[in-house]
Write a structure and sequence with these properties.
Number of domains: 1
Structural class: alpha+beta
Number of strands: 9
Strand order of the largest sheet: 4-5-2-1-7-8
Helix content: 10-25%
Order of helices and strands: HEEHHHEEEEHEEE
Distance between the termini: 27 Å
Radius of gyration: 16 Å
Length: 162
């Protein structure tokens, strides 16, 4: 197992079950920093992204779902690590809901950035609130070389610093 995978596993072990905490308008972001890699795991209620949590019923809703998927696939536009760290997106994986049953629907996404100057990494800004107006809170858990922490990001405070 890679070292950053170990850190992420350790982070996930002390976190409560994310699906049990599904709240409209509130997403979760887990961040693991290991050497020059930043791994971000995002859980976003579908309602916060498109305004509904079921299969799309018409072309407008289908277009909203497709646009959301496209937005979430642009890691560099959604997450901005400290500029001095010179980080670039390495991979993106977005899992859209499959709409089985009547359960709450979430979007799960993971992003990996590699930083040329990881010592300069002091924070990450997100533009999620600009893209998804129904999102009003992002609960963040972070683990990395400077320790671990938790924070709440909002439209007025979209930057996580450490």
């Amino acid at each position: 197992m890679k070292p950053h995978s170990l850190l992420l596993t350790a982070l996930l072990l002390f976190l409560p079950a994310a699906h049990a905490q599904h709240k409209h308008g509130e997403g979760r972001l887990d961040i693991s920093i290991d050497k020059d890699l930043i791994t971000l795991n995002l859980e976003l209620p579908l309602d916060a992204a498109v305004g509904f949590e079921r299969a799309p019923k018409n072309d407008k809703e289908k277009a909203a779902l497709a646009a959301t998927g496209q937005t979430l696939n642009d890691a560099a536009a959604l997450f901005v690590p400290s500029p001095a760290a010179n980080c670039a997106a390495q991979s993106v994986k977005v899992e859209m809901p499959q709409f089985s049953g009547n359960a709450h629907a979430d979007i799960d996404a993971s992003y990996v950035f590699r930083c040329a100057n990881p010592a300069a990494l002091k924070g990450i800004e997100t533009t999620l609130f600009k893209h998804f107006k129904r999102l009003y809170r992002l609960e963040v858990q972070r683990v990395g070389p400077t320790g671990q922490g938790a924070a709440r990001l909002t439209p007025k405070q979209p930057v996580l610093n450490w």
